[in-house]
Each structure stands twice: as C-alpha cells, then as structure tokens.
Amino acid sequence: MNRQRVTSLLAPVAVALVATVGLLALADAPPLQALGLIGEGAFAGRGRVADTLMAWAPVAIAGGGLIVTFAAGLWNIGVEGQMVTGAIAASAVARSLPGDRPLVITLTVLAGVVGGASWGLIAGLLKVKGRVNEIFAGIGLGFVAQAFATYLIIGPWQRAGVASTSGTEPFRQETWLPTVGGTRLAPIALTVAVLVLLGIRLVMRNTRFGLRLRAVGSNPASAALLGVPAGATTLRAFLVGGGLAGLAGALLVTGIQHKLVPAIGGGRGFLAVLVVLLAGSRVWVVGLIALFFAAISVGSSQLQLRLNLDSSLGSVIQGLLVLTAVLYGGWRARRERSAPAIAPAG
Amino acid sequence: MTLAISDITKRFGNLVANDDISLDLGAGTLHAVLGENGAGKSTLMKILSGVFSPDAGSITVDGAAIKPGSPRAALAAGIGMLYQEPLVCLPFTAAENFRLGSRRSVRTARDDLVDTSRRFGFRLGPSVLARNLSIGERQQLEIVRLLAAGVRVLILDEPTSGITADQRQTLFAALRRLAAEGLTVLFVSHKLAEVNELCRSVTVLRRGRVVGSSALPRPESELVRMMFEEGASLPARSPVVARGGVVAELDSVDAGDGRTGIRGAHLRIRRGEVVGLAGLEGSGQSALLRALAGVAPIRRGRFRIAGRDMIGRRQRSFAESGVALLPGGRLEEGLLPGLTIAEHLALAAAPPWIINWRDAQARAVEAIAAFRIKGRADSTADELSGGNQQRLLLSLLPARLQLLLMEHPTRGLDLDSASYIWARLLDRRRDGTAIVFSSADLDELLTYADRVIVCFEGRLIAERTASETSVDEIGTLIGGSVAVGAL
C-alpha cells in the first residue's frame, strides 16, 4: 500500500519531467542544464532558499485550508479571492493602526484571517442556503475581491499624487514581518505555515469536526441521518478554508509585498488547489508538493537570466505535472475498474 | 446457440469470489442461478456481461471465445444483462431509449418498439417518458431493447423486486416464449418459489463454487439445503406482542412530491407493534416513512410523536424523540462510502470534540461480533456486501428508540441474513419500540408485521391484520382493487 502511494506520487513526476525535457528541447534549450538551473535558482545560497521558503508558506497555508474544504466534498475555487480579501483586510489594519510591531502585526494577521473567512462564509451561505454551486460562487466572489483591491489601489488608497496600479504606498516598517540573516526569510511566516499544517493534521485525524467533514464529503444525506449537522459543517469548512486563505493573504502583505498590489494572490490560491488535488488529504504530501512547486516558481527565474527563456516556463512545468498526475490517476482508476465497488464478501 | 462458461476464477484481494466455475447451457434453456449473498452470483453475471474480467477461465458462445472485460464484446456476442435497476435514461422517451445504441431511424424505432412489445404482451407507449414508467415497465423496455440488439443470452438479476404480480406473470410468459424461440435465459434470484415456477434447471453457488445443480422443480427445502451449509430454516411467523399506548399519530398528512408523495394519511402507531407498508414502488410508502422520520417535510396535517407536535421540526429533534430511519439505498442514503466501520460507529456515538479512536475501535470490534458483520474495523462501508451494509446500519441505531422506520429492510439479502436481521429487530419490541417498514416482498410483510397497510397512488387504501389475510389478498389490494374494509 505504501509502495503504491510512493509510485502514485513519483510516476507522474517522472512523466512530467520527461515531458518537460521534451519541451525544453523544442525551445532549443539544453534540457538538463535548464532543470539544473531551476534547482540552483531555488536552493543555491541562503537567499534563494529563503525566497523558496517564503513562496512555500502561503501555498502551504492555503493548501491546509483546502484540505478541510476538499474533505467536506467542496471545490473551494474561491480560495484565490479569499486570499485577496485577506490581504485587503490586513492592509486596512496595517495602513491605519498605530502602535508597536508585535501588536500591529498580530492584528494585521488576524484581520487577514477574518477577511478571508468572511469571503469563505459568503460562498458557504450561497452554497447551503442559496444552493449556488461553490465553484461558481468562488469564481464570482474572486472577481469581486480582485476588482475591489484594484479600486482601493487606484482610488481611496492611492499613492500621494499618482494613481498607479503598481500598488499602494508601502506600509510603515512596524507592519513588516521581521526577517533574519539578511535574507527575505520571515521565521514567523514559516512557523505559522508549519503550525497550520500540523494543526490540520490533528483536526482531520483526531477531532469530531474532522470526522464530520469527511462524513459530509462522503454522503451528506447519510451524514444527516447519523446526526451530523451537514449545513453547519459545510459552513465551518468554508470558514476554516477561507480563514486560512486570508491568513496566507495577510502574510503576503506583511511578509513579502509590504503593500497592497492588484492580484496580490498571484495565482497562489489556484496553485494550492492543484497541490491539494495532487496530494489529497495527506497533509505532509501537501507540504512537500507545495515546496516542490515553490521551488519551481522561484527557480525558473534563472531560466530568463541565464538561458534567456521566459520564466513562465516554470508555470508550464507545474501545469504539466498536474496534468500528468491527474491523467495517471484516471488511467489507474480505469485499470482498476475491474475491481468491484462493492466487494462481494458474504 | 450454446453458452459455455469454463473454469472461471475471479479474486478480489484475498477473497475468491468465483472459484473455478464451469457451466454449459444449450439453446432454449431456462436456467436459474441460486446462492446466498456473497456466493458469487453477481460476480459471475458481471463477468458474463463483460463488466468484470476474470482472472482465469473463458466464456465461449457457439465455440467462439469472447473478449473478457468488455461489455461491448459481450453484447456483440449476443449476451445481454437486465440489471436489478434497469439501465434506462429517465429523461428519454421509451422510443428514444429503445433507439440507444442502434442505427434505427426514429420511425423504425417506434414501429419496432410497438411490434416487439405487442408480441410479448408488454404495453409500452413509445412517447412516454421513461421516468413515468414503473420499474416493471422499465424492465420490459430494457428487455425489448436487448432483444432488438440481437441478444441471444438474456441474464436477469433479481428481476421481480418491485414489480406487480401481473407484471411478473407477463415477464415469466415472455421469458418462456423466448426460451421456446431458442434464447438462453439465465435467471438470478433469491426467491425459491419463482425459480421453481419458471426455470427448468438450476445451478447453486456457495462461497464462489458450484455446489450443486439440479433439474427443476424441486422441493424448496432441498434447494435451501443446497444453498446453506447448515441448512437454514424458512422463517416462522412472529408472535404478536401485546400493544401499548400510541407512539405516533398522523392526521390528514400530505408529504413528498406529487407523483410518489402521500396524501391525507391517517395513522396510529402503538408501542411495540410492527406495521408493514405494502404497495408498488412509489405508491407513497417511501414518502410516508420519510415524513415520519423528519427527512421529508410534511406539507399539511398533524403529526405527533408521544404527544409532541412534530410539524416544522428539524430532523434532529426527530432523532432526539427516538425516531430512526433505515433507508432503502444503504450506501446512497444510510452509510458513508470511504469511511470505515470504526468511523461510522464513532460518528453514531455522538462523540465529544476529541475522538478517542481506541474506544471507537473497541466499539467496532464489538459491533462486528454482535451483528455478525463480515468485515474488519477498518473495512470501509463500500467494501462490504449488501447484507453486511445492512448489518452495519443496524449496529449504528441508538440503543433506545420509540419508532424505527425501514425501507426494504432485507431487500437483496438471503434467507439466513434476513431472518437474522429480523430476529434482531423484533428484539427491540420488548423495549416498546414500534417498527414501520415497507417491503416489496409480501411474504416478508405477512411474516413479520402485525398489521399491513396498503398504499396505492399516494393513499392508504386498506388495512389488514397480518394473521387474517393472505399474499393473494394483499397482492390484489396493491393493484388498487379495494373491496371491503377500506380506511
């Protein structure tokens, strides 16, 4: 069983790598050198490791939230929008609140959680009360969040004298997460991410909430007959998923951007969806795949610098990886189709 | 046309579902396959129809081997299967369903459908939507479609559940006629009487092996002995226990959707009594049970449980009042696919915030022993067979109940499992639990219920004391013919 798990993870990676090599060859780039450069760009030197870890943290945190919603059978595509509302709420606090660093940062981050959770709650209410599919609700709410951020940046929160979509004025330094070793590494962000993943693992394994989530995800009608409040559980899943996406958004503001920029999520929410799609509910696998994706994102900037290839090749590799993994899963399901849905055992 | 099944073996993990099964059938055979749950009947039929591919062995039709594991190849070779739930597309008309997978034009399809139906005494209007057909009519439609597709071997899996006595006679007449025309009919059923009535020969499976074959008819007791190692006995009528006070009162209740809903229902249910609901599928039994359980809202009328008004209350307060429902779709409505037995028990035990898995594990082991579930604490619900899913559902019921509601409690179970499950259920009457259940099996209704209420087109049209009525009388009533004693 465990060997099967490892194969199910490594096989698609291998196929994706072969496909990537082919792609690089087509782009007239020396494939092995390019892959080496990505690895180098992600891990050679403290600064790059720091950047990779800082790219990892928000994806891992949002991924943790998505484990919760996925367990409840919900496709929380709205995660990207929830990240943006989290960032907006965090920015609102960061730009207006006076006071010392620990207090301001705590409140900023908490505001992010509330901002994301509220957006998640709206999607949840639409789903539970309004019977709106969460995918459509998520996409719609995502547009609203994105537009609202842009409006704030060129409107009420515009820089002195210029209305520019490049972002707001940087917030004062007391709102920045402290970094170490002259790198961009903020230990707080990293600690929070690790704690979130450990917490999710605990919740999913050992709590009534985790069990109820899986019950609702498996079959809401049966769950209700077994005494699970299905609607309330769904709403809570959206609250947690949205809250963690908002937390990720707040860390983007306080740890990386230090201001609000349009599209601050930068696709990290969608990336987290893909991560969880690959990893399922296995928390440590979510952490690992998120790290792998973060490394590709950070490392592929080297392709541009050294080989004059567009750095979006990194996204192409990520996409290929997900596609091959999903294809591999589908292919295996087809092969195992001869196994019965109901084992005839007495 | 001859069908030869040779040395078929199929394993699922450690379980050998089919162990070296061989069977030869000539043209014009009416052959039955008997066996208790998990004996390997369904697996064998699914191998025949190409749904599963066998680990070893072969299937030949007129000497030509069929590619295993391909429903298309099986159909091309003339093997067609009528599933328990007929595979019709509900939003399509009968004629559109009939045309599926064929190259007929719309007009030829209509004409062929009408002609073939008439030939077998089926009354199928070509423009009726499949969703408005009864289960029996859907079955007829599927048979006609398979015949038109050139099927020469027809497999029927439990075809008489949920159809009327009339429809059964029509079906049997059609099958006899098809056999006379040279078709091979393979009939899978638990119902010994039907097998005896229809088929000329039988193969009995037990634990994946062929344990006997015989010409039919044969005394039922002998067939039972072949199916079971210990030779289970047919169930005896349960003694009527003294009735207590009223548990549930319904007055002029309307509930459920129009076509399958219930209208104007009056009902008194007493402590410790067993009420059977008879009726064709969709005559309102299901809506009534769901309304009693608080799953479907009651649109009009009065409903009290132990004197407490239940109108407008959430399902949760029904559960708190001691009402439980065992739905007919075990995996679809009652259990959680993918979750283990231990996880089911943990949920049902209303756990505190943090779950004690050691406790849950112990409870699962206990339930597995007490309810004789064939599975382990970490087996998932979907891995269990139908009978064991039902046992798991029973083990999840709260210890004390006022009102236990069940849809088809033993559908698809063998006699042994059914009488075991009923013994457990009837035990609950001693604590005063009232039981209301629906069943398509009239024998079951008369054996276990104290009184039988007949549903017809959404109304409760008649009530009979079980010991004073007969299968024939109830069978006539469910068709809507009410004589004296209407409610």
Structure explained in plain terms:
The complex is a heterodimer of chains A (346) and B (487). Chain A is an all-alpha fold. In chain A, 74% of the residues lie in helices and 0% in strands. Chain A contains 14 helices and no strands. Chain B is of the alpha/beta class. Chain B is 33% helix and 25% strand. In chain B, the strands form four sheets. In chain B, strands 6-7-8-3-9-10 form a six-stranded mixed β-sheet, sandwiched between helices. In chain B, strands 16-17-18-13-19-20 form a six-stranded mixed β-sheet, with helices on both faces. A four-stranded antiparallel β-sheet of chain B has the order 2-1-4-5, with helices on one face. In chain B, helix 6 (165-180) links the parallel strand 7 and strand 8 (184-188). In chain B, helix 4 crosses helix 5 (135-148) and helix 12 (341-348) crosses helix 13. The longest helix of chain B is centred in the middle third of the chain and has 16 residues, at 165-180. Residues 483-487 of chain B have low confidence and may be disordered. Chain A binds chain B through residues 206-209, 211-212, 214-215, 218-219, 221-229, 338-346, and chain B through 12-13, 15, 17, 37-38, 40, 42-43, 46, 52-53, 69, 295, 315-316, 319, 324-325, 327, 331-339, 343-344, 346-348, 350-355, 357, 374-375, 382-389, 396.
Structural class of chain A: mainly alpha
Biggest interface, CB < 8 A: A-B, 28 and 52 residues
As residue ranges, the low-confidence spans of chain A are 338-346
What is the 3D form of chain B? globular
Helix content of chain A: over 70%
Termini separation of chain A comes to 24 Å
The protein's oligomeric status is: heterodimer
The largest sheet of chain B has its strands arranged as 6-7-8-3-9-10
Class per helix and strand makeup of chain B: alpha/beta
What is the average of the pLDDT values of chain B?
A: 85
Number of E-state strands of chain B: 20
Shape descriptor of chain A reads: globular
One letter per element, helices H and strands E, the order of chain A comes to HHHHHHHHHHHHHH
Instruction: Give the termini distance of chain B in whole angstroms.
Output: 54 Å
Biggest sheet details of chain A: none
- What value does the average pLDDT of chain A take? 87
Main β sheet profile of chain B: 6 strands, mixed
What is the number of helical segments of chain B per DSSP (H or I, 4+ residues)?
Answer: 17
Please tell me how large the radius of gyration of chain B is.
Answer: 23 Å
Strand content of chain B: 25-35%
